[in-house]
């Protein structure tokens, strides 16, 4: 990493930090509204930028490009179908959320069911954040910097030592943003980094295609398309990470959970000035998500072509490509932008962890007479604890067997399925009691874990053993047999979502609530919807569907 790269990296990073400090200097972070919801002052542009940067981090960029390196454009489903989930959330769920004036999703669950149900949900969110998401973000970010900037060689350190150093460096800086700056500092820095990431992210495929086409981007794209036709097939095979049928089952469950019930995502929208601004922000984010495969999928295919498919670890495809194609000055700038993206996801989850603990656990179970200032302070202290746990776990994360991004989705399935079922049934019905939600939030988690850790390995190992015993030795044929011996984890998510929903409805039928749930309308914000939400949503949905007609 040359001097120019270092200067551009440090300069851009300090610029973002300075703007974030200047923008938050007058916000009272000692109040809940100020610290957690940015004083309900966020506009559509800031919300869109913050949503994208909270979502688009190293585990997204590195993980999806790694999967695209191995499997091609079909992995775009994780991005393009996210646009559909965002549209559904903006049209159907957001009006109900903002209309009740809630601060957290568990708070909505408390109003709809009861306080113990909210506590269970908060604990599940915190487990997901501290043990799965935060460590993965730190690990993938550190892996990207280590490969892209060749940090071990630059610092003359081992790869393991470099990983520890980067994990703790990113974690400590994220703590400063999230714990001491609150949501507004996070959101403002997100917006700046979102612009930088979109610019820098677009430069990677541009430079890559230019190299393939000997200076011509169009020629590079033509060569890439004609030389790797199998990489531009959006229909996944049965033994791929995303078989085509899964986009109609568990894929939408995972997407709706993430964009419709995930506290770290929705907290950006809960800080909106009005419902209309929140819906505009979500629609802007949905449109960009439709375009994001250019940044998180196409570079992986370009890397496959440039490196002739020869990389030991597919998750190194993106950082290796960045180091290969970017000039020194731009390398430093993009490293700073990627650093901001990693920080965004990390400090957003950290801020949400503080919110969940302060609002939903501390004040309810630890100190019921706590003042607002004490509640915020307790949330900050808990956030520090969560960060320390995540920074300790992160360096021990080994290479995921099916790719980093697939690993994240499989791990979160145990939580996303029951949580989405509880929220959806809670929104759509009025008589399903808290008992139904409690059963699903516990039994639902156990059912998924049993499926993933016990049944799936047993069925697949037995099928492969039987095939080998019958004389089948072809690797491709064995792969198909293994893949079809048990439903894909996304299909399992879809099946269990339906099962969980049926359980709740049955409990509602057998033991209906005696006090029917009636939503309380808030007067804190303007809940008038944006009149173009549905037409814009339909237009974006048509664009998403068209991509599958083009790449088939």
Task: Characterise this structure.
The protein is mainly alpha-helical and 552 residues long. The protein has one domain (3-550): Sodium/glucose cotransporter, CATH 1.20.1730. Helices cover 76% and strands 0% of the residues. It contains 23 helices and no strands. Helix 3 (44-55) crosses helix 13 (275-291), helix 19 packs parallel to helix 22 (489-510) and helix 20 runs antiparallel to helix 21 (475-484). It starts with a helix and ends with a helix.
- Rounded mean pLDDT is 84
Q: Can you identify the CATH superfamily?
A: Sodium/glucose cotransporter
Count of separate DSSP helical elements: 23
CATH fold field value:
Sodium/glucose cotransporter
What is the N-to-C succession of helices and strands? HHHHHHHHHHHHHHHHHHHHHHH
Rg computed from alpha carbons, rounded to a whole number of angstroms: 23 Å
Morphology call: globular
Largest sheet: none
**How much strand content do the residues show?**
under 5%
Number of domains: 1
Which structural class fits the helix and strand makeup? mainly alpha
Q: Which consecutive residue ranges, at least 5 long each, have pLDDT under 50?
A: 29-38
Number of strands: 0
Instruction: Specify the CATH architecture.
Output: Up-down Bundle
The percentage helix is over 70%
């Amino acid at each position: 990493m040359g001097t120019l790269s270092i200067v551009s990296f440090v300069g851009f990073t300090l610029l973002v930090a300075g703007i974030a400090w200047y923008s938050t200097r007058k916000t009272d972070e000692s109040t809940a509204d100020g610290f957690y919801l940015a004083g309900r002052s966020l506009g559509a542009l800031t919300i869109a930028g913050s949503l994208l940067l909270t979502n688009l981090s190293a585990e997204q960029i590195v993980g999806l490009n790694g999967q695209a390196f191995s499997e091609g454009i079909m992995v775009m489903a994780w991005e393009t179908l996210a646009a559909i989930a965002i549209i559904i959330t903006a049209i159907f769920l957001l009006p109900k959320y903002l209309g009740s004036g809630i601060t957290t999703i568990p708070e909505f669950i408390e109003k709809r069911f009861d306080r113990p149900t909210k506590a269970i949900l908060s604990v599940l969110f915190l487990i997901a954040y501290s043990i799965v998401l935060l460590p993965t973000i730190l690990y993938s970010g550190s892996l990207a910097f280590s490969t892209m900037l060749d940090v071990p060689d630059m610092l003359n350190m081992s790869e393991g030592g470099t990983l520890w150093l980067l994990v703790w460096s990113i974690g400590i800086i994220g703590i400063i943003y999230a714990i001491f700056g609150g949501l507004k500092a996070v959101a403002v820095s997100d917006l700046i980094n979102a612009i930088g990431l979109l610019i820098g992210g677009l430069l990677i495929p541009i430079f890559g295609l230019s190299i393939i086409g000997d200076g011509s981007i169009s020629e590079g794209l033509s060569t890439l398309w004609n030389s790797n036709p199998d990489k531009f097939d959006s229909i996944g095979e049965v033994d791929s990470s995303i078989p085509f049928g899964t986009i109609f089952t568990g894929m939408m469950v995972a997407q709706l959970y993430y964009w419709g019930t995930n506290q770290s995502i929705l907290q950006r929208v809960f800080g909106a000035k009005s419902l209309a601004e929140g819906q505009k922000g979500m629609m802007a984010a949905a449109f960009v998500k439709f375009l994001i495969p250019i940044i998180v999928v196409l570079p992986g295919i370009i890397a496959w072509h440039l490196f002739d498919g020869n990389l030991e670890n597919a998750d190194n495809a993106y950082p290796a490509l960045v180091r290969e194609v970017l000039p020194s000055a731009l390398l430093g700038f993009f490293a700073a932008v990627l650093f901001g993206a990693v920080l965004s996801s990390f400090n957003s989850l950290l801020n949400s962890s503080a919110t969940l603990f302060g609002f939903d656990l501390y004040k309810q179970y630890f100190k019921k007479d706590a003042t607002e200032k004490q509640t915020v302070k307790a949330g900050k202290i808990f956030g520090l604890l969560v960060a320390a746990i995540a920074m300790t776990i992160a360096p021990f994360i080994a290479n995921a067997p099916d790719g980093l991004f697939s690993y994240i989705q499989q791990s979160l399935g145990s939580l996303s399925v029951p949580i989405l079922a509880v929220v959806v049934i809670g929104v759509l019905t009025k008589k399903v009691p808290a008992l139904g939600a409690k059963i699903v939030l516990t039994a639902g988690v156990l059912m998924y874990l049993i499926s993933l850790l016990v049944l799936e390995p047993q069925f697949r190992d037995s099928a492969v053993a039987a095939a080998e015993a019958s004389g089948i030795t072809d690797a491709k044929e064995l792969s198909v047999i293994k893949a079809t011996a048990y439903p894909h984890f996304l299909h399992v998510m879809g099946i269990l979502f339906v099962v969980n929903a049926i359980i709740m409805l049955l409990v509602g039928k057998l033991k209906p609530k005696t006090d029917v749930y009636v939503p309380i309308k808030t007067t804190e914000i303007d809940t008038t919807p944006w009149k173009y939400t549905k037409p814009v949503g339909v237009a974006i949905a048509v664009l998403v569907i068209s991509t599958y007609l083009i790449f088939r």
